[in-house]
Every structure is written in C-alpha cells, then in structure tokens.
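The data layer described in this paper is built around a simple, fixed record for each protein. Such a record has a labelled line for the sequence and another for the backbone structure tokens. For reference, a complete record is included directly beneath this paragraph.
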Amino acid sequence: MASSPRSFSILFFFFIFLIDPSISTRTSFIKLPGSVDGSRYCDSWRLAAETNNAGTWDVIPSVCVDSVADYLNGEQFLSDYNVIADYVIAFAKTVEISGDDKDVWIFDIDETLLTNIDYYKAHGYGSEPFDSNSYNEWVVQGTAPAFDASLRLYNALKKLGFTIILLTGRDEDQRSFTETNLRDVGYSGWERLLLRGPKDQGTSATNYKSEQRSKLIEEGFKIRGNTGDQWSDLLGFAVADRSFKVPNPMYYIA
C-alpha cells in the first residue's frame, strides 16, 4: 500500500527527531490552527506560554506584538497580577510562622518585583532576540519601576513575619545598581540578595536557582513560598512549599 502524504510527513518528522532529539527542547512545534484569527491566536498563545505548555521559545510570535503590548499596558495585566498577589497572601496567612526568622519567602526580581517594560517597549516586547549587552546597559541605569501589586505583596509578606530572600539571575557585579533600584522604588528589609557569581556562569536558571535554594535549606531555612515570572524560578529541586508564577509573556528562560 502506498504511503499517504500525511504518513510521509509524520515519518519525516520522526526521522528528523531521531537525528537531533534536542530540537524538541529548543522551540515548540505546537501551533494553533491557521484559521484562528490573530487576536484569538495571540490570547491562546499567551495562555500556552504562561502555563508552560508552549515549551521552550525564543521570541514571541511576530503577529502577537500588538496583542502582548496591549495586554502589558492594559488593565488585564494589572488585574492578573493583583489576583495572583491576593492568592499568595491568602496562602501566606495559613502558614504558621515559627518566629525563628527561618520561614523564608523567595522573590525573583526582574518582571516579578521590578518591571523592565520600558526596555522591552524599545525591543518589540520580546519579539526581538535578546541582546545581553543592551539589557545590561539598561540594568545599570537602575530605573526599573516596581509593580504596584508586587510591592503590596512584598510588604504584606514582611508584615506576616516571613524572611525575604531575593534570588535573581542578575550578575554579582550588578549588586549595587540592583539594591539602589529596589530601595528607590520602595522595597526594603530583605535578608539576602543572591546574584550569580563567577562559578554560576553557564549554569541554567533552573539549576542555578535550585542550587541556591538547596544551600538555604542546608542552613536551616524553610522555604515556605516562592514567587517568580519564570518557571525556572520555581521548578527544579529544593522547591518551596508553594510556588506562584506571575505573568510575563515577553520572554522565556529555561
């Protein structure tokens, strides 16, 4: 029996996968039907990205630039972040604080406590390949604003008695700029700010942050909660009792 075009396509894809199985980890092959209109496609893509169903991706779809911009600059994003903050606070109130300063809540920084929206506005809202040089130039300016919802959440958790630890993928040589930026927009009272040192370079975000959490546990800290905009902030090993992801459709870090 002759093979159908569909059978041939499936066999061809399987053959390519066998040649280079890592291809599946570099980008998502999941595509929505072409008949879906642009607005619905982009809403659905954003949901798939936020729920980690889209797999690894490098840039947002070019057809979704306006949709992502409208979302980030509109009321829906503010509502989404505020609802998540409310859920975090509701959970945090159920945690029995021991009083020994060992009950930790971890926060990521970029797109979690600080918004780099002004940088990404100038770079297609994540539709352009990431340029570490221009991004680092932005970071050292120390002008990233706080999210209103994250500042509210941060202060609520401090008031409840959690020890706050900041765990970021920024480099150690950006410490002073980062600390100044955080204080300028209203954050204070964190126990530690953990940044990538020379030995952490080249380590994936998931492994780097897992290793840092593991060290905290070895010191006797109990990681009650963790909040970040990337799944790599939350997954891996030595995870928190409860983790909360805040929305960020602009980029993906593995």
